């Protein structure tokens, strides 16, 4: 397994560095207005702290989105028939090959989470004000990212990245279209758009203060862990099917 | 080991220690708030990573290469140790709570304290907090890995080439304790209200780190992997003290901060180290006894078997010209 991981790290060294830089940029962009004018920035943020919340949530969200995009490139780099048949011929080859991908994805997510926490701390150091606590959000997004990979990776492995992405995209479009249709014709009275960011800020602050919320997180995290393992087992099962779809 | 090899080994250890200490001391002194904390949150996020960075840099600077890296997980063979690393610190945390309660806080009502400290929720809140802390320890395991990849996967194995295991762990423990010195100097871990502050605190940290170092080294050497130690370290940092902080009075904690620190950090590891040392010496003696008896059996067997030895037989038959 270690050999496969080492190989992945060597092959995806560029992606890994790109991820690090992308995370720094995506988390650091909230400092740009501060550098443009420190006093105005501090005044604005003191007057309307919702901006801070919006910016921090946006920065963390973008970081995990970028991290997720680069995670999937890990699988496509090995899409060669010769390599796949060689892997199959080795002892526990499929399990090791697929397992290494799943471990690498966790490592990417861990790196994303660490950089987000670090950049949040750095922002707090530079600005010197109360930066909204994003630790709870980062934990949730970490597991959301793993959940999304747990759903998408079996598709990519079973149909190769080319067809897998098409299948996934069609499902995504179907969900989006349904959401838009609901947005246009459905009942939206339960969403209070005026106070949504205040509520988000309160949620971020109270994430670890309410027993119900903590239990909710635990159930979600545990379910994602089980789903991730099941996804790995399914991917192992369909690995050879996906090899047939490789171009090279 | 030749003199040159020994010299190179000492040089590597020296470079590693320097690379560990320089950034740590610079940040902890430079950003200290003089109350045991740091003024920079970003700096505190990186502190635990420097031993791992020092490991990698030392290997590059001294052209050592990968060598014994302890990066293989070996999970299947050593599931019990992994489970111990995960659950052990929590059990130790509960034992620590009971010991410190009996010693310093026996008049306090633990149930009432638990409810008071957790906004009236008591155990209903403590259990989910402990479980969710396990999840955050898993997500930020890189921190525990950062320290253990330096101390257990580099320094101790290097020192073990120069001295026996316990001495190597003791030296690592002292180095590890001194690495924490600037924080303790400003009141982290043990507070400031104890006799001999801050020197006694630094000595106490070194003393507490020795048995902890021994236990973590045992895990690393047994599994030939750094991960159990990293998991254990992270669980110690995030989960172990939760029961204690939830059920201890603040006044008792501040009055006996040094003793609390010593018991929490070094108490259980000391007991576990003693058990491990006794167990290892018994196993070693049993091995020596069985080796000696097998040697003597072989010696007796060879004396008796000499006349019927194939070589002698063949020589005898050649002599006779058969």
Query: What is the structural class of chain A?
Result: mainly alpha
How many separate structural domains of chain B?
1
Strand content of chain A is: under 5%
First-last Cα distance of chain A = 25 Å
List the total number of helices of chain B.
Answer: 15
Please describe what this structure looks like.
The complex is a heterodimer of chains A (about 250) and B (about 325). By secondary structure, chain A is an all-alpha fold. Chain A has helices at about 1-10, 15-30, 30-35, 40-45, 50-75, 80-90, 95-125, 135-185, 195-205, 210-245. Chain A is about 85% helix and about 0% strand. Chain B is an all-alpha fold. Chain B has one domain (about 5-285). The longest helix of chain B has about 50 residues, at about 255-305. Chain B starts with a helix and ends with a helix.
Please describe the structure with a list of short key phrases separated by commas or semicolons:
heterodimer; A: 248 residues; mainly alpha; 10 helices; 0% strand; globular; B: 322 residues; disordered C terminus
Describe the protein's topology.
The complex is a heterodimer of chains A (248) and B (322).
Chain A: H1 2-11, H2 13-28, H3 32-36, H4 38-47, H5 49-76, H6 81-89, H7 93-127, H8 135-185, H9 196-206, H10 211-243
Helix pairs in contact in A: 1-7, 2-5, 2-7, 4-5, 5-7, 5-8, 5-9, 7-8, 7-10, 8-10
Chain B: H1 3-30, H2 41-46, H3 50-61, H4 79-104, H5 110-117, H6 123-139, H7 141-160, H8 165-179, H9 181-185, H10 199-223, H11 227-240, H12 242-246, H13 250-255, H14 257-305, H15 310-319
Helix pairs in contact in B: 1-3, 1-7, 3-7, 4-11, 4-14, 6-11, 7-8, 7-11, 8-10, 10-11, 10-14
How is this structure best summarized?
The complex is a heterodimer of chains A (248) and B (322). Chain A has helices at residues 2-11, 13-28, 32-36, 38-47, 49-76, 81-89, 93-127, 135-185, 196-206, 211-243. Chain A is mainly alpha-helical and 248 residues long.
